[in-house]
């Protein structure tokens, strides 16, 4: 937190710098975004946790056919995320001067830069 002239904390925090694109959302989150308002209107006295429980119950009761539009949105969002990560990796590579021996490698959910020494094939 930033300090005021008198040495007290001013209440404002420094904004964190975003590192990379936003992660891809799972199908359930797309469902929650769409349904949250209607659940709150149906249950105006429900707390935040109760709304989450109701949404979870609705999601579990849905068939695969009903979940299909949310699954397709999630697939689209995953493609967007991967595209932005590839773009970011290329930008980082350019910033490094396109040095010989640098490649992009997937680590868990993210792609990052690695030297050819770090990229191990067939080892876990």
UniProtKB/TrEMBL annotation:
DNA-binding region in chain numbering: 21-89
GO CC, any one term: nucleus
A Pfam match: HMG_box
Region (Disordered): 1-26, 75-101
GO molecular function: DNA binding
HMG box domain residues: 21-89
Superkingdom of the source species: Eukaryota
Biased composition (Basic residues): 1-22, 76-96
InterPro entries: HMG_box_dom (IPR009071), HMG_box_dom_sf (IPR036910), HMGB (IPR050342)
Keyword Nucleus: yes
Keywords: DNA-binding, Nucleus
Record bears the keyword Nucleus: yes
PANTHER family membership: HIGH MOBILITY GROUP PROTEIN DSP1 (PTHR48112), MITOCHONDRIAL TRANSCRIPTION FACTOR A, ISOFORM B (PTHR48112:SF22)
Protein's name according to its UniProt entry: HMG box domain-containing protein
Species of provenance: Chara braunii (Braun's stonewort)
